[in-house]
Amino acid sequence: MTRLSRRQFLAALSATAAAAPFTPILDRWLPRIMAQGSQHHLYIARNGTPITNVQRAVALAGGIQTFIGHDDAVVLKPNGQWPLQGYTHTQALKALIDVILNRPGGFAGEIIITEHVHRDSTTALNGSFCWNMSSGYNRTNNWADMNYFELVNDYHTRGINNVTAIPLYDTGQSADFVTATGPGDLAAGKHGWVRATYTTTTNARTVRLSHALLRSSYSNHIIDLKHGVWHDGGYTGQPVKVIFLPTLNNHGSYNSEDYAGPTSALKCHLGIVEFAGSSGVHLHDVGYSGTVSPQAMGESVGHLITQILQPAFYLTVAEYTGYRSRTTTTAANTKTVGLCADPVTLDYWMCKYVMYPCATSQTFMNPDNDNHLRQALIGCQGKGVGTIDEAEMTVHLADINLDKHVYLPLVRK
């Protein structure tokens, strides 16, 4: 396998960025950025189908058995708030479910798809959101065959009943969600939120950081995202594994950096928490209301995933990269999936080497520049999460077509 120094890789990337717009995808020698004592590993697969890219990325990371046990309760958290490439590619989501179901040694646990689109229980289930995403235009740059509910129903039709879905809602948005101090006092038949707060050092705002209690329709167990599975008055010892499946998009518009900039793994956490409550502000507003402070949002996410949740891994699905926006049909078919244990390292690499080459005039997509993306990453890294130093990254990168080549995305200026 050919290795390139970081200098050689960046030179190759620069040559690609200088190519004429809309030229064919250019091949470049596989960049395997290595460092002695490197601790942060990324597993990147590209140029296959959504199915083979997911399979290859997981295999590069050691196989699904590295992360998921025989009896685990697995919670999959995709993006689902926007149509087109704005919601996680359904076929890639299915591919990960199938990898889990076919785990070496077997899988006797359960899989729950969950996402908070921050709409009431009527609006969230209309044809503009992941659960019942309407066919046709809304599935452009996504899988035309199924939305998320159709995917779950397809498993049930085939007798695979341990795959279910639970849309998340704030208390007040759905009668099915209530507050609780834990599974022991969760009202019968309800899902719940356990509320907590954190005050940032970045801007001294207090942010609400809840975690969900999900009542499984398959097992009738309570899936406590912080502490594990609860049943018959106590924790069973069965682990809960949370996997995030973000998209890769420009949160704003072309030629305009909004308050977030690129949106991917870090910002994906806004859909795993409740926004309601009376103490402080919610996870969006801690950094994005009033005086904009992406670093405060990143810091808050860092607290969430080090003190409350313990994600198994992150799998960014960039079958299409919305470099212009989440919801315009013009998007780059980047055919890339990236897996990492943390969102900071993953966002840095995916934004720099997948999104930014799509439109090199958009400097706010490059995390090496002083922009909102970098500020958010710094905030999260400050809580001990990941790295934005490439010398501390080891990238394992496989191309489906040519083992020693990587194809960089189209360059559009």
Helix share of residues? 10-25%
Major sheet characteristics:
8 strands, mixed
Our estimate of the beta-strand percent is 15-25%
Low-confidence residue ranges: 1-37, 404-413
Structural class: alpha/beta
Helix/strand order: HEEHEHEHEEEEEEEEEEEEHHEEHHEE
Mean pLDDT: 90
The strands making up the biggest β-sheet line up spatially as 5-4-3-14-17-18-2-19
Q: Helix count?
A: 8
Quote the distance from N terminus to C terminus: 32 Å
Radius of gyration: 20 Å
What is the count of structural domains? 1
Q: Given the C-alpha coordinates, what overall shape results?
A: globular
Number of strands: 20
Produce a short descriptive summary:
The chain is α/β, with parallel strands linked by helices.
Polypeptide structure, described:
The chain is of the alpha/beta class and 413 residues long. The protein has helices at 6-17, 50-60, 90-101, 148-157, 285-288, 294-308, 343-355, 372-381, and strands spanning 27-29, 40-46, 73-78, 110-115, 163-167, 177-179, 191-194, 197-199, 206-208, 211-215, 222-224, 228-231, 234-235, 240-245, 249-250, 262-263, 313-318, 336-340, 393-399, 405-407. The protein has one domain (64-312, 321-330, 343-385). Helix content is 21%, strand content 21%. Helix 2 (50-60) packs across helix 3.
Key words describing this protein structure:
alpha/beta; 8 helices; 413 residues; disordered C terminus; disordered N terminus; globular; 21% strand; 8-stranded mixed sheet
